[in-house]
Design brief:
Number of domains: 2
CATH superfamily of the largest domain: Ribonuclease H-like superfamily/Ribonuclease H
Order of helices and strands: EEHHEHHEHEHHHH
Helix content: 40-55%
Number of helices: 9
Distance between the termini: 64 Å
CATH class of the largest domain: Alpha Beta
Largest sheet: 5 strands, mixed
CATH architecture of the largest domain: 2-Layer Sandwich
Shape: globular
Strand order of the largest sheet: 3-2-1-4-5
CATH topology of the largest domain: Nucleotidyltransferase, domain 5
Oligomer: single chain
Structural class: alpha/beta
Number of strands: 5
Amino acid sequence: MKIVGIDEAGKGPVIGPMCVAGVLMEEGRMHLIDGLGLKDSKKLTPKRREFFDGEIKKIVDGWFVLEVSAHQIDELRTVMTMNEIMVKAFARVLENLKPEHAFLDAADVNEARFGRNVQGSCKHHLTVTSRHKADATYPIVAAASIIAKVQRDHAVGTLREEVGDFGSGYPADPKTIRFMREWFREHNGFPEWVRHSWKTTSNVAAAAAQRTL
């Protein structure tokens, strides 16, 4: 039986893309992933993630990463919710890898509903296990989590080289907010690698506009 694990990196940031990764493995070879002793990608240093990224790609039967830019997220959010975007993205990854069973890190407060929605959005037949924090329970989801995070790290690193250090890109990061504020003052707007549909973006714009009055 072909098994896939799926996880995302970058659902919440206000800057940069979101990456949704899937890892495919024959059930009889799953012990190879178990043997890596993977942990949740957030608990690993970037260096360890890079190491595991290479090791995972050597042993799996297939992998696929869907990268959704900030601009694409903004466009999609004019017609659907973030939850619906997540369902669509997970289904796209599954259609690329075509497993018989998928373990998903649920991107919805209701994990069973998320699983049903993803399953219903797939064109091929499969069964689904959808759990919160699945990367801490299923090594194949931890593997997907690492691949997603490494790809996002690379995308963010490239962007940082082009535009300057904006911190992590997350709304809770003061460095990110400071960077956005300065960018807005200088350019009187935001570029397309900033998520315009995020509340953070309109808050920064409103605060900057008040200061210039």
